[in-house]
Amino acid sequence: MTRIACYTSFNYGYLSRARILAKTLKRLHPDWDLWAMIVDRTPADLPADALTGFDHILDAHELGVPNFPGWMFKHDVVEACTAVKGHMMVHLLTPPDGSPGYDKVVYLDPDIGVFNPLDGIIKRLDHGSIVLTPHQTEPNTTELAIGDNEMTSLQYGIFNLGFVAVRNDRNGHGFAEWWAGMLYRACYDEVERGIFTDQKYCDLVPALFDRVEVERDPGYNVASWNLSRRKLRFGPDGMLWSSGSPLKFYHFTKIGRVGDFMTQRYALDNVEVYELVNWYKRELVLQTVPEADQHRWVYGYFSDGTPIPKPARVLYRRRADLVRAFPNPFDASQGGYLAWLRAETDIMGSPAEAHAA
Questions:
Q1: Quick one: residue 194, left, alpha or beta (phi over 0 = left, psi -120 to 50 = alpha)?
Q2: Smallest Cα–Cα separation from 175: which of 121, 129, 213, 215?
Q3: What residue ranges do the domains of the chain occupy?
Q4: Residues 298, 18: contact at Cβ < 8 Å?
Q5: 294 phi and psi, to 5 degrees?
Q6: For the structural domain made of 4-290, what CATH number should be given?
Q7: Distance between CA 56 and CA 72 in Å, rounded?
Q8: Rounded to the nearest 5°, which phi and psi values hold at 54?
Q9: pLDDT tens, position by position, for the chain (357 residues)?
Q10: Pick from 18, 7, 9, 76: which is nearest to 292 by CA?
Q11: What stretches of the chain adopt beta strand conformation (E)?
Q12: Residues 6 or more apart from 291 whose CB is under 8 A from it?
């Protein structure tokens, strides 16, 4: 029997989204092992049933990433939850305890909802090693849509890495190791340097690896970035269809002001899109766990509770001397990175202000 794992990566601020993913996926694939990769510290008062939709839970610090405190400090929350994806894939293909790995591994972002079986992806892995989905699968024709979609994909990545699937063969494992290595080096939102977390690297995948399957079925990875060329419709039986194909999964990216604006721009009179998004918003309320919602991301603060500003992370990751001098930059004790920042930079405010506080 083929052993299949699906995993997602999130901090507790995204738990409600991850619970929707678990609910919708396990309804269709109860035989898959669903893993939660938690990039956070579990709140002491988290209810025991908060993660019951998942079969396995692993904390990021358990992955065995070298120099973990210093490496984690380099990332903001989005970068961090993305940076662990490659290492987690390797973990599932070749477990460190020597036990057999999964035959096929699927990654899905926590803000995805699954509406029809993903059997087509699994079948692709019978003859392919890696499956990717592009942001766009049809050319746009208006200047506005080309600017929002094709031109944006050139900056942020051709493929959307909210989904990726691999087979546990030499080629698939080679990809996972390569991806983990690239994300260890630099998983940053630095579009000006040609980097966007994990996505831009995967533009290279069809050139670097064999048996890469590009899934162009319009039922996969529907989102605001391809609504200009896809239409949702309900069938007579209530099933959702996307441009003539059953809707497999929808990517509810940036639910809120920004995401709603882009959805409205391209959904236009496609009322089924609004019905689906409104369903998701209602589910977010139902799946909210207050103890998680109120939890502060543990890697967002120095050990004394001082918030870590983004410039402190960027400076640290760009200077090898600081990485060597402060292997645990979260440590706020005397002689640590926080003290150095206050003495040598204005990132934390002026030294006089810092000493007076």
A1: left
A2: 129
A3: 4-290, 301-356
A4: no
A5: -90, 0
A6: 3.90.550.10
A7: 22
A8: -100, 145
A9: 899 999 999 999 999 999 999 999 999 999 999 999 999 999 999 999 999 999 999 999 999 999 999 999 999 999 999 999 999 999 999 999 999 999 999 999 999 999 999 999 999 999 999 999 999 999 999 999 999 999 999 999 999 999 999 999 999 999 999 999 999 999 999 999 999 999 999 999 999 999 999 999 999 999 999 999 999 999 999 999 999 999 999 999 978 777 788 888 989 899 999 999 999 999 999 999 999 999 999 999 999 999 999 999 999 999 999 999 999 999 999 999 999 999 999 999 854 343 333
A10: 18
A11: 4-10, 33-38, 56-59, 104-108, 112-114, 130-132, 163-167, 189-190, 195-196, 212-214, 232-234, 240-242, 245-246, 249-251
A12: 43, 45, 46, 47, 50
**300 burial class (0-12, 13-18, 19+ CB within 10 angstroms)?**
middle
Amino acid, res. 295:
H
Q: Please, which residues bridge with residue 38 across strands?
A: 10, 59
Tokens at residue 47, please?
Answer: 């209810």
